[in-house]
Amino acid sequence: MEESQERDEGRGVRGALDGIRVIDFTRAMSGPFCTMLLGDLGADIVKVESAEGDDTRRWIPPEVGGMSTYFLSANRNKRSISIDLSSAEAREIVRRLVLRSDVIIENFRPGVAERLKIDYGTLSGIRKDVVYCSISGFGQDGPYRDRPGFDLTILALSGLMSLTGEPAGAPVKFGVPVTDINAGLFAAISILSALFHRERTGIGQYIDISMLDCSVLTLTHQALAYFATGVNPQRMGSAHPSIAPYQVYRTADGYVSVAVGSEKLWESFCSAIGMPELLNDPMFRRNSDRIANIGQLNSVLEAKFRSEPADRILKMLESAGIPAARINSVGDALKDPQVAYRGMISQFSHHAYGNIKSPGTPFRMSETPGRLRYAPPVLGEHTQEILSEIGYKPEDIKTLYNSGAVR
């Protein structure tokens, strides 16, 4: 059920955010991921870029049609206008855009927006009810305010990286920039909440999203465990600190994940793998016993799983209702029948890049579903179109091009 989608404004499907315009001054991942989500929901995302464009356009390899796959992954459903923000002409373009926009989002280091005169104080003076969101590594205040924020450093400082990796190994990062993505999600929630507040009150507001703040909240039960015991949670590989067995096991020909999350499931699990004697072993009788004796439990289970192929193990467990799955590669996951059935693989056609396969949108809503309307833009692809929309005549646009104020 692969979905092929190009610009589809004539389809008659309204997005939840149709009519909302977002000025997107962001680059890299946290901000672009946020605005991509808003674009999936129907907002008109105007991506404002310098003459060089978003840095991630040049993060190659890999690439599709000469464009970085990193950039392509977070910039669909956007229109690009390329302007020189240091010029007086560009400031007038921004002024006209702000008058016709609802949301402004930036993820520069604190102080940069002020220097470029695109900060909340300046732009809210143009449109008082604007919703303005800043994403940064550490927030707009505090002792770390001026530090650059990158996924790797936020993972380290937040404590999240101390929890990842094998017990005897080094801390490791996740395979995608989770702290950026997390901040983008919190930013999107904040923006939608602020728009709802504005709908009720007519009042806009400023949003300060810190990647570190979002990551500290992501500690969830691990933070509470520390507060309760004063003991730092340790790396456990794929295991769970409070549930057992709940981890990845090696089989004769691959790895499987097993999640035995209740005593009822434990009974079913022991029966399914042909080891009912484990139920009467005092070391494994209750979940608390299994956690206390996790080393002994894993010795027994690892020997069992290594003697069987993954398909046989999964068949035994799934027939008993035990949550279990093979560890898919990225390629396997993208070919999974459930992923395909849910329409989570889409394809764009773009005049510059050719065909682009991409994950779809998870916004499955009965009245206003998420849509993939158009492919990530070439740098400055919509400059002339956007300038026309905000009142510039053809001769004015030509003058702007000639002066270097726009690209």
Description:
- InterPro entries: CoA-transferase_III_domain (IPR050483), CoA-Trfase_fam_III (IPR003673), CoA-Trfase_III_dom3_sf (IPR044855), CoA-Trfase_III_dom_1_sf (IPR023606).
- Keywords: Transferase.
- One of its GO terms (molecular function) is CoA-transferase activity.
- This is CoA transferase.
- It comes from Candidatus Sysuiplasma superficiale.
- The structure is a single chain.
- With 407 residues, this protein is an alpha/beta fold.
- The strands form 4 sheets. A 6-stranded parallel beta sheet has the order 6-3-2-7-8-9, sandwiched between helices.
- 38% of the residues lie in helices and 16% in strands.
- The radius of gyration is 25 Å and the shape is elongated.
- The protein folds into 2 domains: 267 residues, 3-Layer(aba) Sandwich (Rossmann fold), CATH 3.40.50; 87 residues, formyl-coa transferase, domain 3.
- A hairpin with a 2-residue loop joins strand 10 and strand 11.
What key phrases describe this protein's structure?
formyl-coa transferase, domain 3; Rossmann fold; CoA-Trfase_III_dom3_sf; CoA transferase; 3-stranded mixed sheet; CoA-transferase activity; 17 helices; 14 strands; elongated; transferase; disordered N terminus; 6-stranded parallel sheet; alpha/beta; 407 residues; 2 domains
What is the strand and helix layout of this fold?
Layout: E1 3-4, E2 21-24, H1 30-40, E3 44-49, E4 63-64, E5 67-68, H2 69-73, E6 78-82, H3 88-99, E7 103-106, H4 112-116, H5 120-123, E8 131-136, H6 151-158, H7 178-201, E9 205-210, H8 211-218, H9 220-229, E10 246-251, E11 254-259, H10 263-272, H11 287-292, H12 294-306, H13 310-319, E12 324-326, H14 330-334, H15 337-341, E13 345-350, E14 354-359, H16 383-389, H17 394-403
Helix pairs in contact: 1-7, 6-8, 7-8
